[in-house]
Design a protein that fits this description.
The protein has a five-stranded parallel β-sheet with strand order 3-2-1-4-5. Helix content is about 55%, strand content about 10%. The protein has seven helices and five strands. By secondary structure, it is an alpha/beta fold. The two termini are about 20 Å apart. It is globular. The protein has one domain: 3-Layer(aba) Sandwich (Rossmann fold), CATH 3.40.50.
């Protein structure tokens, strides 16, 4: 089972990597999207001068996948993860830490093109489908 990162959603919507679109179709039933990613996409749409059009595009894309709410269990993993990464002086972005913590908590493989940050998360399995 896979949890796709925000950058994978954006690349897929833009058609940046043709092989990515094919892989997403092949794995569609085993792919999830975090509610954190929904928030990031909404933020991007709200900032865009094409806001409503951008929102329609991402909502149509997300309709293909189950959205996983960021819940209390995820929040506990997130808090512990942030503390651990800070103690090792290897912090990552807050949203990436939230998505990564959700992946660990739910035993999901994170699919991202941002492997540098996600690979810092202990116990997280990471794949890049945008190569």
């Amino acid at each position: 089972m896979f949890l796709i990162d925000t950058n994978i959603c954006i690349y897929a919507m833009k058609g940046t990597f043709p092989s990515l679109g094919q892989r997403l179709l092949e794995e569609q039933k085993s792919i999830f999207v975090s509610s954190v990613t929904v928030g990031e996409l909404e933020y991007g749409a709200a900032k865009s001068r094409w806001g409503e059009r951008t929102r329609q595009i991402f909502q149509a894309f997300l309709a293909n996948y189950e959205i996983i709410p960021f819940d209390e269990m995820d929040a506990i993993y997130f808090g512990k993860l942030r503390a651990e990464l800070a103690s090792r002086s290897t912090p990552i972005g807050v949203y990436d830490a939230m998505i990564g913590a959700q992946g660990v908590a739910r035993n999901l493989v994170i699919v991202t093109h941002n492997t540098k940050e996600f690979c810092r998360i202990p116990g997280l399995r990471v794949e890049d489908w945008a190569e």
